[in-house]
Amino acid sequence: MGLAKQLIVDGKDVVIIDSSHERIESAVSKQDCLGILGNGTDIAKLMEADVEHAEAFIAVTNSDEINLVSCGLVSSTYPHVKTVAAIRSLIYTGVDGLKEGLLGIDYIVNPNAETAKSIYNTIEQGVNGNVLGFTNSKLLLYNFYIEPFSSYVGSTVMEMRNKLQAEFVIASINRRGLVIVPSGNTTIQAQDTLSIVANSEEVTDILKTVGQLQKRPSNMVLVGASKITRALLNRMSPAMRSKVAVVDQDAEVCRAFSERFREILVIKADITDEDIMAEEQLGSYDLLVALTDNDELNIITASYAKRIGVERSIALIKQNNNYTRMASYLDIDVVISTTDTTVESLLRYLRGTNVTSIHSLFNGQLEVYEFVIHAENMVCNKQLKDINMRKKAIVAGVTDHQGKSIIPTGLTTLKEGDTALVAVMRDSSDFIQKLFG
Q: Where is the RCK C-terminal domain (predicted)?
C-alpha cells in the first residue's frame, strides 16, 4: 500500500492484484486505484489488469516464488514492460545480491538487505533520527526544530547562517504542516522545522551548537537473531562486531550465529524474562536494536531499554506500518520500517537510473533527490542561476566526481559526473525529474 500511495500521488494509474478480498477492498476504499482479486501468476488476471500497456509490473508479495514467477511471466510475454520483484531469500540472489538478469527481471530489491542498510547508516550517524545520509555524497540532511525560545526566531535564513558560522543550505521549512522552499530573506518562526543540508563536519558543528550531538555507539545489543540481524552484522567490520551482543531464545539459531560471527557475544535468553536485562547487564550498553519478527515486542523492548539505562534504542517495524508513528512517542530514538525502506528502493529505480537516493519528508510534501548528472541531462554544464526550477525546488548540495562536496551558489556549474541533491515540492517532482533525469 505504501508504494501504491506514492505512485498514485505521482499521478500514475495503479492496478492492484491480490488474493485477499479484504486487502483489495481496503486498498480501493482508501486509494484512487483499481483492484483485482486473484494471483499474479495467473495470466488471465494479468491480462485483466492490462499489463500489456503498463509502464511497470511490481511484485511485492510475501512469497519470493510468486514474485519470481509473476515477473517471469510478464517479462516473457510483454518484454517492453519493466519488471520489479521483492526477493528475500539469498538462495535466489546470493550473499552479494543480484540486481538484474534473473528470469529477465529488470530490478530486484531485497527488503532485508535494504532495512539492514538503513539501520547501519542510522548507527553510523549517531542514532539521530533527524539526520539523513545519501549514497554518493558526504553531505547530510538534518531536520532542525526551532524552539519558541530559540535565538533564531525572527532571523532570516541568511542571518541564521551568519549566527551559526557554518556553510549550509536550508532546503525547506515545515511551518505548522505547510512546507515551503525558502529564500535567503525568509524569516524563521517559532516551531518551524528546518531541513538543513551541510557537510558531515558542518552538521557535527551545528549539532554541537544546539546541544544535540550524539556519538556513534561503541557497544550495542541486538535483540532477535533474524535475517535482518544477519544482514546487519554482515555490514559491520570485525572490530565493530566485537562490541556487539545478540540475544535470542532459539538454541539452534544462537549456535548458527556464534559460528558465523565469531566476534560477537551470543546470549540464549528470552528478552521478555524480567531478570534477563539485569543478569546480562544490558542496561550498560550504548544502544539496543530490537530486530525480532514481532513488531509489538520490538516496540516494548526498545522503549523499556531506555528506562533501564540504555542510552539509545531502535525498533524495527516489519508487519504493521501504522506502528511507525505510534512508536515515535514512546521514547524510542529511531523507528525503522521495512516497508518504508523497500518503497524507497523501488522508487529510486522507478524514477530514473540516475537517481541514487531519495528521501520523502513531511508526509510526502517534500522529496530530496540525489541525481547523478549525465552529459545528456538538460542541466549539464549550466550554472544554477540559469536553471529555472519555478521556485519549487532548490539544489542543496553538489558532489563532484572526485568526491568533493560543496554547498553551491548561483554560480556553481553542474558538470558530467557530479551528484546534485535537489529538494523539491511534491507537486513539482515530475518537472524536476525531467529536468535532472
A: 129-212, 356-437
